[in-house]
Each structure stands twice: as C-alpha cells, then as structure tokens.
Amino acid sequence: MNKRAPLFCMLLFSTFLMHAQGPVRDRIKTLKVAFITEQVGLTSEEAQQFWPIYNNHEEIMGDIRRKERAELRDNIAQAQELTTNESEQLLDNLIALQSKKQQAEQDYLSKMKTIIPAKKVLLLIKAEEDFKRQMIQQFRKRRGKD
Predict the structure, then answer these.
(1) How many whole angstroms separate alpha carbon 140 and alpha carbon 146?
(2) What is the chain's Cα-based Rg?
(3) Average pLDDT, the chain
(4) Alpha helices in the chain (DSSP H)
(5) 82-104 burial, b if ≥16 CB within 10 A, otherwise e?
(6) CB under 8 Å to 22, separation ≥6 — which residues?
(7) What one-character DSSP code corresponds to residue 2?
(8) Which of 37-51, 63-77, 83-97 has the lowest mean pLDDT?
(9) Can you tell me the distance from the alpha carbon of 118 to that of 40, in angstroms, rounded to the nearest whole number?
(10) Which end of the chain offers a freer environment for a tag, N or C, measured as fewer CB atoms within 10 Å?
(11) What pLDDT, in 10s, does the model give residues 82-133?
C-alpha cells in the first residue's frame, strides 16, 4: 500500500491540474487512469506494461465505434430507401465490425492476463463499469441542475 500511495497522490494531483486547464475529454481520461489504478491496485511494474496495452486497446475500440457510427449515421436514416443489396451490404458491414470488436476484446483480455493476475483483470473490468456508472451519474446530476 505504501508503494501505491505516492503514485495515487501524483495521479490525483495531476487530475486537479488537468481539471483546471484541460479539455473535458482529457480530464475524464485522467480521472479514469487514477480510478483504474486505485481500483485494480497496479504496482509500478505492472503499470508500465499495463498502460500501453490499455491505451492501444482504447484506440482500437474507438476506431471501431467511429466506423460503426459512420455506417449507421450515413445509411440508417435512409433505411426505407435502401435496396435489398444495399441493406445486405450494410448489415454485413455491421456484422464485420461487431466481429472485429469481439476479436479485439478477446485479444486485449488475453494480453492483460499475461501481464497482470486474472483477479486484477476482473477488477479492471469492474472498475471500468464503475467509472462509467459514476460518469453517467455525475452527468445526470449536472444536467438536472441546469
């Protein structure tokens, strides 16, 4: 615990600095890093291997999500006007993207399992869900105040 305290304090301090000057997305990312580090209990050695893989996975998943949104945004509004062939092509594209997403998740979890214990991988999954839930709750609270 003593080894993690300075790391956590540093992350918390950087979070406050980012909060004061950075864009919202950067602040959220910093908060997420601090939250995951604390919840999973990464050692400094684990963190050195963990974060590059985690960040790479986030980029891959972001690309897949952008492609999904682009496919849907460009075509779903015109679903009534699409021909059968166009509809089948769109659906095939979406299925392929879903498959890519699933394969990326499997690869990611397999890599994580080699650098941190399985228990910490499960804690990571839980921490990500908890962080999302907290962000949604905060958004709803702020939205309700407006």
Answers:
(1) 10
(2) 19
(3) 84
(4) 4-21, 24-40, 44-75, 84-115, 118-145
(5) eeeeeeeebeeebeebeebbeeb
(6) 30
(7) T
(8) 63-77
(9) 11
(10) C
(11) 888 988 988 898 899 999 999 999 999 999 999 999 999 999 999 999 999 9
Q: Is 79 helix (H, G, I), strand (E, B) or coil?
A: helix
Structure tokens at 128: 């990500």
Residue 61: partners with Cβ closer than 8 Å, 6 or more residues away: 101, 104
- Whole-angstrom Cα distance, residue 139 to residue 110? 33
Torsion from C-alpha of 78, 84, 88, 91, nearest 10 degrees = 30
Which residues, including other chains, have CB under 8 Å from residue 136's CB and lie 6 or more apart? Answer: none
Q: How confident is the model over 3-27, as a mean pLDDT?
A: 56
Whether residue 1 is predicted with pLDDT greater than 70 in this model: the reply is no
Number of other residues whose CB lies within 10 A of the CB of residue 29: 16
Residue 120 burial by Cβ neighbours in a 10 Å radius (0-12, 13-18, 19+): buried
What are 54's two structure tokens? Answer: 């985690």
Which residue, chain included where needed, has tokens 């509004």? 77
